[in-house]
Amino acid sequence: MACKKERIAPSDTTKLRLFADSGGFCQNPACLATLFKDIGGDAIHIAEMAHVISASNTGPRADTRLTPEQRARYENLILLCPTCHEIIDKAETSYPEPLLQEWKHSHKERIKSQFGFAQVGSREEARKMLLPILQANKTIFDTYGPLTEERYNPESSIPRVWLRKVRSSIILNNRKILNFCDLNRHLLSGDELATLELFRQHVDDFEAKHIFGFESNGLQFPSDLTKMFT
Predict the structure, then answer these.
(1) One domain for residues 102 and 18
(2) One domain for residues 111 and 7
(3) What pTM was computed for the model?
(4) Which of 62, 82, 115 is the last residue of a domain?
(5) Do 63 and 144 reside in the same domain of the chain?
(6) How many structural domains is the chain composed of?
């Protein structure tokens, strides 16, 4: 991490963790604006990482006891839309640290509940819950993904549609799969647990590429994941 004027940029892992926790929405419970937008056929994100305790000694909610490293940690960051970021910093007395931390915690719990996570009693039940998510991702990949014939057409809009669907659907579905499988680890075999960890690394690499523009493709999707709980 680079340090400039006593400020340290959050790590890539921290950035990805924030995006995963947000579910693609502003973490202000009174806002919940979508952080991914379609503009002129392009898919962009408008998310801003806001500091709970200011990155400097003179900013909003400043605390001179914190080191630059502590201020750049996941625990001190919240993901907001540009408007909410501006508001909490300009009206800092109305948005103290405990309130922002509660926003972040409650938002994460809300996303989990909306994903419908549950611990189930059998592999058959688990398969029934997991299969629709896997099928949804496969349909998007087969229709719009990088292996379609449209990738050779420079005038095609499909690559932009693919990126939009990656950000609006596949990334969230991947997180659903991870969380559901983690919750039901007791039903997984040793080989399936190994596949799950490969998928976890794939998700991290996939998000790094499609959210932050990393050039490397990273670990490819482990095909055995489609057989989980069978």
Answers:
(1) yes
(2) yes
(3) 0.67
(4) 115
(5) no
(6) 2
Do residues 45 and 211 touch, judged by C-beta distance below 8 A?
Answer: yes
Are 82 and 135 within one domain?
no
Domain ranges, residue 20 = 3-115
For the chain, the residue count is 230
Gyration radius from the chain CA atoms = 19
Query: Are residue 8 and residue 43 in the same domain, yes or no?
Result: yes
- pLDDT, tens only, 79-132: 999 999 999 999 999 999 999 999 999 998 887 766 656 788 999 999 999 999
Task: Report DSSP letters for the chain, one per residue.
Answer: --EETTEEPPPHHHHHHHHHHHTTB-S-TTT--BSEEEETTEEEE--EEEESS-SSSSSTT--TTS-HHHHTSGGGEEEE-HHHHHHHHHTGGGS-HHHHHHHHHHHHHHHHHHHT----SSHHHHHHHHHHHHHHHHHHHHHHSTTSGGGG-TT-SHHHHHHHHIIIIIHHHHHHHHHHHHHTGGG--HHHHHHHHHHHHHHHHHHHHHHH--S---SPP-GGGGGTT-
